[in-house]
Amino acid sequence: MPRLALAALIVYFALAFGLRSWIHWRRTGTSGWKGISGEAGSAEWVGGVLFVVALAASVAAPLGELAGVVAPWPALTGPGLRLAGAAFCVTGIAATLWAQLAMGDSWRVGVDERERTALVASGPFRLVRNPIYTSMLLGMGGVALLTPNLVAAIAVAALVVALELQVRRVEEPHLLRVHDGPYRAYAARTGRFFPGIGRLVA
To answer: What does the alpha-carbon distance between residue 103 and residue 23 come to, in Å, rounded to a whole number?
Structure first.
């Protein structure tokens, strides 16, 4: 179902990046995009580059199948897996938007050390500290099930590594510097990507 995967990606990018940026601009006067952190070659920079690679590969996976350049893995082409992939895509898109809107004016893509945004711990952030990223992984997993090929697998792997680096090396250190005690208390009771898993230990 590469066409369905491609359609899901178009909707996702339009809503999660386009619409959310427009809403943020209307509310704050800025797009919320801060770019890639760190010097070239640093862990932060690698994470940002891998994030771009993951997004590009997610689009290349269905396009490659449609063009006949990339072949799907036969063992993963069953109707049940394709149905699960579609469900993951829809759920991932909806959950991403929910988490983005829950952030309000604190939503950003990237980190600006000069800014001091409010700590958000309500809505989906009561369940995990990074619900946007969890939702992205769910949606990307759905795309991979709709187009189960090598390029889609690369996209998922690149996204996992990118988000781990972004969270551990960029966002969590920034939040600790800005919010210190309140963030430590929040992170001690709330999982990083999944409930109860990756809680901060003092």
So the answer is: 12
Closest CA to 116 of 105, 125, 129: 105
Structure token pair of residue 149? 């090929």
The DSSP secondary-structure symbol of 89 reads H
CA distance 122 to 160: 24
Whole-angstrom Cα distance, residue 6 to residue 24? 26
Amino acid sitting at position 120: V
* pLDDT tens track for 78-133: 889 999 999 999 999 999 999 999 998 887 877 767 778 889 999 999 999 999 99
Rounded to a whole number of angstroms, the distance between the first and last alpha carbons of the chain is 46
- CB 83, CB 129: distance < 8 Å: no
For the chain, 202 residues long, the average pLDDT of each consecutive 10-residue run is 92 91 84 70 85 95 94 89 95 95 83 79 94 96 95 96 92 91 94 93 72
Of 199, 175, 176, nearest in space to 189 by CA = 199
Helix, strand, coil shares, percent, the chain, to 5: 70, 5, 25
pTM over 0.85: yes
Structure tokens at 172: 């969590």
Is 136 in contact with 92 (CB distance < 8 Å)?
yes
Question: What share of the chain in percent tops pLDDT 70?
Answer: 95
How far is 156 from 81, CA to CA, in rounded Å?
A: 16
